[in-house]
Amino acid sequence: MEYKHFNHEHNLAIFELQAGNGIHCSGCRTLCSNSAYACWKCDFFLHLECGNANRAMEHPSHELHHLTLVPYPTYSAGSFVCNACGAPGSSFSYCCSLCEFDLHIRCALLPAIISHRAHPHELSLTYGLGPQAKVSSPPNACDICHKLVDNKFWTYSCGPCKFQLHTSCATPEMVPISYQADGVSGNAAVEAGPGFYKEENGSGSSQNGSKPAEVEDPVLATQLELMRLQQELELSNQLAKMMASYNLSSLV
Ligand SMILES: [Zn+2]
Ligand SMILES: [Zn+2]
Ligand SMILES: [Zn+2]
Ligand SMILES: [Zn+2]
Ligand SMILES: [Zn+2]
Ligand SMILES: [Zn+2]
Q1: ipTM score assigned to the predicted complex
Q2: Ligand 5 center to residue 167 CA distance, Å?
Q3: List of long-range contacts for 121-125, beta carbons under 8 Å, 24+ apart
Q4: Given this model, what pLDDT does residue 175 score?
């Protein structure tokens, strides 16, 4: 199976990459291992997560406007500052260019509520005031790295306990509980579909042992369910007949 991504001229295929290969994702510039989309000619790689990211989304942290997935920062500096984690980025971002609001893909997909080994209660994703904001509340320390947390950027927090983690510190060991906050889906795709569409006419021979999970055919599933119901109906009919004949004969 080959795939066409909006940000690459050649078709991509899914490969299993060894850990420690030094290959970086062209979407987020972090290391790639396990399954990834690849164009070997161009050294172009994408995490599945980065390649499958929708072209646009609505995010509850920026309710004014849709965010659009842009492959490169549109700013003259050639980089952006992520409104979630405060770290710079130089490749894919979910961007509102009107407000100069940017999120790394990974930050945009952070779940609203998590559980974490470091704290007995659920932690909720708490949005910050943005990179330009003045730090108003006295800064706390992150309970994992013990560095300061300010109110510009996002944290995972437990309000009653005043427990806070940087999102980046929480991520390696977090267990997602809910992707929904206040009924608003942080991951809702709007208008545009995923960055990929499938190239059905691809040779597929370049695939390397990664079989996508077989998606259950809904039509087939419905047919099977109908057959099962039919059989149940027939059984109960037979049973009714048996009962009836039994009753009749017992009446005689
Ligand atoms: Zn990536
Ligand atoms: Zn290429
Ligand atoms: Zn970020
Ligand atoms: Zn905006
Ligand atoms: Zn931290
Ligand atoms: Zn707590």
Answers
A1: 0.93
A2: 7
A3: 121/158, 121/160, 121/161, 121/163, 122/158, 122/177, 123/156, 123/157, 123/158, 123/163, 123/165, 123/170, 123/174, 124/156, 124/157, 124/158, 124/159, 124/181, 125/154, 125/155, 125/156, 125/167, 125/181
A4: 87
